[in-house]
Amino acid sequence: MKKPLENRRGWRWLLLLALCVGIVGAIFFLPHPVVQNVAETSIQGLQYQPQYGQEDGTLAPPTTLTDYDQAAVLACLSRYQEQRTLEKADGQEEDAGRFTMVLDVNGETKQLVLGEACYSYGADGWKYRIQNGNRLQQDLGKLLNLPISA
Q1: Whether 105 contacts 123, CB under 8 Å
Q2: What is the pTM of this model?
Q3: Which residue from 143, 40, 127 is spatially nearest to 83, judged by alpha carbons?
Q4: In angstroms, rounded to a whole number, what is the distance separating the alpha carbons of residues 42 and 35?
Q5: Which of 2, 55, 112, 133 has CA atoms 20 to 30 A from the CA of 121?
């Protein structure tokens, strides 16, 4: 008669383990703001590629923007969410978008690439997909007074 009780105990441990893995996985992949704390974040570099999306494939070097309201840009970024992916950043992303940004987040570097694919990556090396990246580009274009085509 002990066998059914022992089997139930094994299932309980397996169920508990699956529940723990599910909780950790949910926390690991839950969306969070691109900029979580505006007060602890600063923009180290902001570049704009005015020719992004042109079909001829020839791009001039991006324009480094220096005259902008940093607090407004960070507030804009804080309204958008990002979510961890299973991809690692390979370091080739710097010139892949309409906007590229380097942020200092409490002493650690975080880079954003906003283009056809919108993502960020930081010291941990994981890529984070930015949700509603096209809308974010439109908002940044308005905020920075730059022409952004769809």
Answers
A1: no
A2: 0.79
A3: 127
A4: 10
A5: 55
